[in-house]
UniProtKB/TrEMBL annotation:
GO terms for molecular function: lyase activity. It holds the Pfam family Glyoxalase_6. InterPro entries: Glyas_Bleomycin-R_OHBP_Dase, Glyoxalase_6, VOC_core. PANTHER family: CONSERVED PROTEIN (PTHR35908:SF1), HYPOTHETICAL FUSION PROTEIN (PTHR35908). SUPFAM superfamilies: Glyoxalase/Bleomycin resistance protein/Dihydroxybiphenyl dioxygenase. Signal peptide: none annotated. It comes from the Bacteria. This is Putative enzyme related to lactoylglutathione lyase. Residues 3-117 form the VOC domain. Keywords: Lyase.
């Protein structure tokens, strides 16, 4: 069986503006862009590529899929991401099924979560 890789595609309004945020947030490198796309890859480790795709239509509701960022210290990671331009969407932490996380949004409003690793 051959090895399978995968990538994630995030529809955004301005990939060039959003790429630095996601690069810092995920410890990824911006590989480059062409046309409506900007590609990011993990720095020095394996992991999925992230493609930011410019779309004309705006978001009209909750993201159907979102990224989860795992962290040993949730609040420290939330503070780091807020310094990069993210914002909390809910006060405090959500706790469910023995796990805790904070719901956040990137500078364009795309939801993601920061949870326990």
């Amino acid at each position: 069986m051959s090895e399978i890789g995968f990538g994630l595609v995030l529809d955004v309004a301005d990939p060039d503006t959003l790429a630095p945020f996601w690069a810092e947030a995920l410890h990824y490198s911006v590989v480059g862009g062409v046309g409506n796309y900007v590609m990011l890859r993990p720095e020095g480790r394996s992991g999925p590529r992230l493609l930011l795709q410019k779309v004309k239509e705006g978001r009209t509701g909750k993201n159907r899929m979102h990224l989860d960022i795992d962290a040993a210290d949730i609040e420290a990671e939330v503070n780091r991401l807020e310094a990069l331009g993210a914002r909390r969407l809910e006060n405090g932490q959500v706790e469910e099924h023995g796990h805790r996380w904070v719901v956040m949004a990137d500078p364009e409003g795309n939801e993601f979560c920061v949870g326990e690793s």
